[in-house]
# Entry
Amino acid sequence: MNYPHPLLAREGWPFIAASTLVSIGAWIFFGLGVSVPFWIITLFVVQFFRDPAREVPEIENAVLSPADGRIVKVERCLDPYAGREALLISVFMNVFNVHSNRSSVNGTVREVKYFPGLFVNADLDKASSENERNAVVIDALVSGQNQTITLVQVAGLIARRILCYTSAGETLHKGQRYGFIRFGSRVDVYLPLSATPQVAPGDKVSATSTVLATL
# Structure
């Protein structure tokens, strides 16, 4: 079990507190009926920032999903962050998914690259190259072989804040929480061409507990 953080993400505490206070104020000053829409908004904010514990599969060569959501792409392409041909698997997160991002592999962070950009719908192909994004390039040792895995947090139409808590030289473990994206986005996972996908477009996945591919 990998869970060194609260059930409700710390990133959401100010939003949860503010929406709760507004709801209480509307109830006190205007009555229960008027406050109902505000309580609904509060419930939405609470569910958005939930961050449940996840079991880490005991599969040595597995690449785990870094996010909850839906697979929108599995294809061969160029990994512009590590400079190589790669297998790309993209996970799209809507506003009802958990938005905590977790490491897909055990490894050492080679570099972290941030790119400012647009905020088009993260479900679109051009979001990977045009939207605001943050890439984490990881050197992983899998079954005795060195492998490069790149995780890219991509902002979306509503998401306006990418948070990344790791830096070059740090060690990440499978399932370890390393970032968060607020309000709808996606994560692109670039893998070696030798990787075998375990998911297909349209599949729903869960961070840490779903195996995206094997190496």
The two ends are 22 Å apart (CA to CA).
